[in-house]
Design a protein that fits this description.
The chain has about 325 residues and is α/β, with parallel strands linked by helices. The protein folds into two domains: about 220 residues, DHBP synthase, CATH 3.90.870.10; about 80 residues, 3-Layer(aba) Sandwich (Rossmann fold), CATH 3.40.50. It has ten helices and 16 strands. The strands form two sheets. Strands 1, 2, 3, 4, 5, 6, 7, 8, 9, 10, 11 and 12 form a twelve-stranded mixed β-sheet that branches. The chain is globular. The structure holds threonylcarbamoyladenylate and magnesium ion. Threonylcarbamoyladenylate binds next to strand 6, strand 7 and strand 11.
Amino acid sequence: MTELLEETEAGIARAAELLRAGALVAFATETVYGLGADATNAQAVSAIFEAKGRPRFNPLICHYADMEAAFAHGEADDRAIRLARAFWPGPLTLVLKRRPGCPVALLASAGLDTLALRVPAHETALALLRLVARPVAAPSANRSGLVSPTTAGHVMAGLAGRIAAILVGAPCAVGIESTVLDLTGPTAILLRPGGVTVEAIEAEIGPVIRKPPLAETLEGFRSPGMMASHYAPSLTVRLDARTVSTDEGLLAFGPPLMGAGATFTLSETGDLGQAASRLFEGLRWLDTEGQRLGLARIAAMPIPDHGLGMAINDRLRRSAAPRDGDTPKS
Ligand code: TXA
Ligand code: MG
């Protein structure tokens, strides 16, 4: 049985108690729901991989209540401090060198000598993290390779019975995962575009290397969550749709194309923030509706590749990527 906990003092206290005891608790953040475990407890971390069906070489993000707590575990240089001041709490994950003596279980970072750290901008999540008073490892709270959850209902659909509880929270306002930035070398590397735009990051620390979105080999090692097929609905996804047919479900951006079998509009006005916050909901809705109506696939209209559009396009490309059985997923 998975407990549904409310955003009350009692609900948050129960969630913290479960986490401290080594149980898995999903909780809302401003990006997506995370599947949390005490990051210092290797067995609890292991249970995350188990519940998600996630490959063990794909490292997890550790969540902290504030910058001081985060930088006690990861070595922050001037760039990290600058970015943390500008964007934390918020949808930015920094990959830093692990400090000696850092108590985070090695499994959480898949054995790497680096650590991915983030302070979420979500009141309930922060209250929970303060109570737990330990880093909380949390990937998105979905079965590996499938669409990320932005409501408690999405989490239930994938993980009910496999986790101890869900702390139901205010809606995931950003709706797309955090930006992952590698600061372990002299030049910052964007490992995953996300809720903080690369333009905003560059305004703080200068040029950032952008990795090709589907780079497989080296990238696969640096950030295995960047593997091709991911965020995959059951129906296949066709990108860059400029026309649509009656046997397709349309993911629209701007005024929708006419003639689709079903339509979900990310943003009628072409607002990238609104589109990001509705992306996973849209993919899920079209998938369900498309299967009900017997549609052949999902067709996604083009989205400009700047600002949050970069993160949206990254997720769309991966939802459309080939799904061969041996492609590792997160
Ligand atoms: O918004 C988010 O980031 C959400 C919420 C719950 O915080 N979490 C999330 O976690 O998206 P997950 O596990 O789905 O994605 C974590 C990403 C993966 O691409 C992983 O490979 C990368 O971060 N990552 C984690 N630790 C890393 C490390 N030490 N070095 C490089 N990449 C790392
Ligand atoms: Mg994920």
